[in-house]
Design goal:
Blueprint: H1 34-52, H2 59-64, E1 69-70, E2 77-79, E3 85-88, E4 96-105, H3 110-117, E5 123-137, E6 142-147, E7 159-165, E8 170-174, E9 177-180, E10 183-188, E11 194-200, E12 207-212, H4 220-225, E13 228-231, E14 234-236, E15 242-244, E16 257-258, E17 261-263, E18 265-267, E19 270-271, H5 273-280, H6 283-299, E20 304-308, H7 317-334, E21 337-343, E22 346-348, E23 351-353, H8 359-365, E24 368-372, H9 387-398, E25 404-408, E26 412-416, E27 419-423, H10 425-429, E28 435-439, E29 452-457, E30 461-467, E31 472-478, E32 484-489, H11 493-500, H12 502-506, E33 510-513, H13 525-533, E34 546-553, E35 556-564, E36 569-572, E37 578-588, E38 591-602, E39 657-661, H14 668-677, E40 681-687, H15 698-706, E41 710-716, H16 719-741, E42 747-750, H17 767-784, E43 789-792, H18 811-820, E44 830-834, H19 857-867, E45 874-879, H20 902-919, E46 922-927, H21 953-961
Parallel strand pairs: 12-13, 12-33, 13-16, 17-20, 20-21, 21-24, 24-25, 25-33, 39-40, 39-46, 40-41, 41-42, 42-43, 44-45, 45-46
Antiparallel strand pairs: 1-4, 2-3, 3-6, 4-5, 5-11, 6-10, 7-8, 7-11, 9-10, 14-15, 18-19, 22-23, 26-27, 26-32, 28-29, 29-36, 30-31, 31-32, 34-35, 34-37, 37-38
């Protein structure tokens, strides 16, 4: 700031004019000489008088007009008579003949009546109103400092400067900051005619913005919370136009404003920055884009739009501001509202940096500034130097507080090393594991009545805690030596209410949620948001996490015990012989969240039964009902149940087809077996690497066609090349797929199991990223051959993401994220794999391992169908049952299938085909596999239809079901 040198005002700033004494002319006779002289003197005098009233002397105004204080390099500041307002200019940039006149008017003065009457009700005047007049050409910026009156007892964080605009008749927010105790300073480009200090009041009801992603549907419950509904689905094009379709479920004139959000992404993990920079970098495209946005919003009856263009390079800061100013001006003309989503500001060396997003410029042009805050709950810790509070204190000096919406996440968060990611409430608990039981067993593998039973969760060791300052519970997961592995913060109603209430500290407009409809929010979150909106307190809830154990029989709950989160259950089961279940739920602020339970077979010793399979724990929470068969505590493979193949006519022809995965499309042995089974599709897998010619697929296509089969090509890339090449590699891969499509295959499956690090780079697994790959692949395939069936790469069925962070993403979450990113728009069929069944496909329970959905055929079909909302059919590109019969013992990792017989294998494949054909949900089923012979750590031959010796019981079973 320039040093203040005040002008000493003078009632006579210029020296008075004095004439010099003149020597009287020599006297001459007659009037012929003196008359012209008199006329000349009169004219000269008149000109002198006129000159005194013209600039630069302007005598009239000096005597009777506004008394300006002219500012100069030597005297560059002026202060009002009451000392409350100081106007300062930079001596190096003075403007031209710039002067200022300040007047302190009483608040009840007639000249202030109109202005004060126009002040919004939520603003309360503090101190005097200052009239400001200027003359000459103003400098680029003028600094104005208002002293806070000593009588003002208001919270300094709630004080704002406003300027009066005579033309519009409105008070406008003036960006300002408290740079010294008792002083608020603003640097302005346009000096207002009046300036005053106001105290901001809280709004009676804060705004709640609810975003709806393209693949989501606005629920009635979410609609009741919303002040603004922001449906997504639209993106800018390189021509400045809009593309896409809006999310469903909203209605106009239903008690909330509808402001579609225009984004440069389908998912924030796959941004289209190039399109935005192309628009911003061209005045023509920018104007076209403004016109398109205005036409879209105005013609559809929307209240306006929200712009969410992320990761714009900082070099486009001025261009982005110009775009928002132009758009805001156009919207003002049409009576529309404009919102802009921006990332949180970052403090670097004491300076707040907003990158490409000039908050002051955006705030002046837009109606809402939606700030996406950090996911880190600790950032909300109160304190002048804490991230959120410090940033908001600065923000309300840049943008009117009544325009600011805090962008919050309704989900829980997972912190691993330096990465913080959102997680559903269930996912946050997943690393606890499932119930594991230890007890002394008989030779038959059953628990003897009266024996001590110990039950615990088999996941990471967990220690729960509560940060009472921010009202947030957490769980620390510990590894070897109790080394912290991860922390999950549970977003409970109390935790979210605390974060929402940060708006009250600064009188902000409200909050915005982008993931409220993502699924997985804690129970009670909607009520917490409603109470916030109505400014009612949220009822306190239990905060300490604990485990509630239940021992259940077919008749109901036998006993119930509550322990600490990391404690085991120790009990003695005195009960009649039979099957029981030990179930557990995590209890706390979110009510009960069940984990996978365990079955206990309570029997006195009997003859030795067939050995049963070892249980495979799952980290996914699923309530467990007591299974009907006798199961030991840690079972080994279950004894074979009778296998009954479906009857004739069970496999319904029409929209359903089936086939098999073969070692070679040229294998006549495989082809003969498949014809016998009634199959008409062959599948092979080809792995692409950089530079490969699409022609490698030609021989496989031709060989299948020559044998009368349709051909599905599963085309998979190289994870290492993908990690190194990124988007460039994806584009090359998509181009390769287009080349293969031109050769005429019947179907292409894009990639394979992209949710595990065997097929996708570690740490980069993302349903959203895969959706972008599907977009590029689909467009390339359809451009080359519109008749090719495009199947999304089937994810690996798994629930192990909590145990292997960065290496695995659960298949249901992966599909959910892919759908949310718009992936359904770029496929004809959703790929699926099912290959871990040890019960028949018609069963929905009874697997001795647990009740996780991937264990069951219908679990897979129903879960996937629900995830995609029935918008696309399902294509099983791998469906198989594993039997070691005739091959020898299975490796430990596959021991769960040790007792599956070839008869079951055959009957279940036929039954799965029948059920799939009747479901109306499955388009294609490819059996894994027809003729593979390898049998080692990966027992492929155990899945094969053609068994050792050449027999094919599955072929006969399928043939009989046709």
């Amino acid at each position: 700031m320039s040093e203040e040198v005040f002008v000493q005002e003078d009632t006579q700033p210029f020296n008075p004019f004095r004439r010099e004494e003149e020597t009287p002319p020599a006297r001459r006779g007659g009037c012929g000489c003196w008359l012209p002289a008199l006329i000349t003197l009169f004219l000269v005098g008149a000109l002198v008088v006129v000159g005194l009233f013209l600039p630069p002397i302007d005598l009239y105004n000096r005597l009777f007009g506004v008394q300006y204080t002219m500012l100069s390099a030597e005297s560059n500041a002026v202060r009002s008579t009451d000392g409350g307002l100081t106007v300062l200019v930079d001596p190096a940039s003075l403007g031209e003949n710039f002067g200022v006149a300040l007047e302190t008017a009483a608040n009840d003065a007639p000249e202030n009546a109109a202005a004060l009457a126009a002040a919004p009700l939520h603003l309360v005047l503090q101190g005097a109103v200052y009239d400001i007049q200027t003359t000459g050409s103003a400098p680029d910026t003028v600094t104005m400092t208002v002293a806070v009156p000593p009588t003002v007892g208001a919270n300094a964080d709630m004080l704002d400067l406003y300027g009066w605009d005579e033309v519009s008749g409105l008070w406008s927010f003036v960006p300002s900051h408290a740079v010294a105790a008792g002083q608020i300073t603003a640097t302005v480009q346009d000096v207002p005619s009046k300036m005053a200090l106001f105290q901001a009041r809280l709004l009676e009801q804060p705004t709640v913005l609810v975003a709806v992603d393209a693949a989501q549907v606005l629920s009635a419950e979410a609609a009741q919370l919303a002040t603004i509904v922001a449906p997504g689905g639209l993106q800018p094009t390189i021509e400045g136009k809009l593309t896409g379709s809006l999310a469903a479920g909203f209605e106009l004139n239903r008690g909330y404003l509808v402001m579609p959000v225009i984004r440069n992404y389908a998912d924030p993990r796959a941004l289209d920055i190039d399109t935005v920079t192309a628009i911003l970098g061209s005045r023509t495209l920018r104007s076209e884009h403004v016109g398109q946005l205005a036409a879209f919003a105005g013609s559809a009856g929307f209240a306006g739009v929200i712009i969410d263009y992320r990761d714009v390079p900082e070099t486009f800061r001025e261009a982005f501001s110009a775009f928002i100013r132009e758009l805001g001006a156009r919207f003002d003309q049409q009576g529309l509202m404009l919102g802009v989503t921006v990332p949180t500001a970052v403090n670097t060396g004491g300076v707040w940096n907003t990158g490409a997003y000039d908050w002051r410029a955006i705030g002046a042009a837009a109606d809402y500034l939606h700030i996406n805050l950090s996911l880190d709950p600790e950032a909300f810790t109160p304190g002048a130097d804490r991230p959120v509070e410090a940033m908001l204190r600065w923000a309300v000096g840049e943008v009117s507080r009544y325009k600011i919406l805090l962008g919050l996440s309704a989900l829980s968060v997972r912190a691993v090393e330096n990465q913080i990611t959102p997680a559903s409430y269930q996912d946050a608990l997943a690393a606890l594991g499932s119930v594991s039981v230890q007890a002394e067993t008989s030779e038959t593998g059953t628990v003897i009545p009266g024996s001590e039973i110990r039950a615990s969760l088999d996941g990471y060791k967990a220690v729960s805690g509560m940060d009472t300052v921010i009202q947030s519970p957490f769980i620390d997961y510990l590894g070897e030596g109790d080394t912290p592995v991860a922390r999950v913060w549970l977003t409970t109603p109390d935790a979210l209410r605390f974060r929402m209430d940060r708006t009250a500290l600064f009188g902000l407009a409200g909050v915005g949620f982008e993931d409220l409809l993502a699924g997985g929010v804690a129970d009670g979150i909607y009520n917490a948001i409603l109470n916030y909106k109505l400014q009612m307190p949220t009822p306190p809830m239990q905060t300490e996490l604990a485990l509630r154990w239940r021992i259940e029989s077919a008749g109901g709950v036998l006993s119930e015990v509550t322990t600490g989160l990391g404690e085991e259950l120790v009990t003695t089961l005195e009960a009649p012989e039979g099957n029981y279940a030990i179930n557990v739920a995590v209890i706390g602020a979110d009510g009960e969240k069940p984990r996978s339970g365990a079955a206990v077979a309570l029997f006195n010793p009997t003859a030795t039964p067939t050995p049963l399979p070892t249980a495979t724990p799952t980290p996914e929470p699923t309530p467990t009902s007591p299974p009907p068969p006798v199961q030991p505590v840690n079972p080994a493979p279950a004894a074979a149940a009778p296998a009954v193949a479906p009857g004739a006519g069970s496999i319904v022809a029409g929209g359903f087809e089936y086939g098999g995965h073969v070692t070679s499309t040229g294998s006549e042995n495989a082809a003969a077996a498949m014809r016998r089974a009634g199959m008409n599709w062959m599948k092979i897998q080809l792995r692409y690497s950089g530079g490969m010619s699409p022609n490698v697929a030609a021989e496989h296509i031709n060989a299948a066609r020559a044998r009368g089969f349709k051909i599905l090509l599963a085309l998979v890339g190289n994870p290492g090349e993908l990690a190194a090449g990124g988007q460039g590699y994806i584009q090359e891969f998509a181009s390769f797929l287009g080349g293969v499509a031109a050769l005429g295959p019947d179907a292409i499956e894009v990639w394979n199991e992209p949710n595990i690090d065997r097929e996708w780079p570690t740490g980069q697994i993302s349903g959203a990223t895969f959706a972008d790959m599907m977009r590029q692949a689909y467009q390339a395939i359809k451009a080359a051959n519109g008749s090719v069936l495009v199947i999304s790469g089937a994810p690996a069925p798994t629930g192990a993401e909590a145990a292997f962070p960065g290496q695995v993403v659960n298949d249901d979450r992966f599909i959910r994220d892919m759908v949310a990113a718009g992936g359904l728009n770029y496929m004809d069929c959703l790929g699926a794999h099912y290959n871990e069944g040890i019960v028949g496909p018609s069963q929905r329970s009874g697997d001795p391992r647990d009740g996780y959905y991937t264990r069951y055929f219908w679990g897979m079909v129903d879960t996937y169908w629900s995830l995609i909302g029935g918008q696309k059919p399902i294509c099983f590109t791998e469906l198989g049952y594993l039997s070691p019969e005739g091959l020898g013992p299975l490796p430990d990792f596959f021991a769960w299938a040790q007792n599956v017989t070839v008869a079951q294998h055959a009957a279940w494949l036929a039954e799965a085909a029948a059920l799939a054909s009747q479901s109306g949900k499955v388009r294609l089923m490819i059996v894994w596999n027809v003729d593979f012979s390898a049998y080692g750590s990966d027992p492929q031959a155990g899945y094969a239809m053609i068994r050792p010796g050449g027999a094919c019981p599955a072929c006969d079973a399928m043939a009989g079901a046709r």
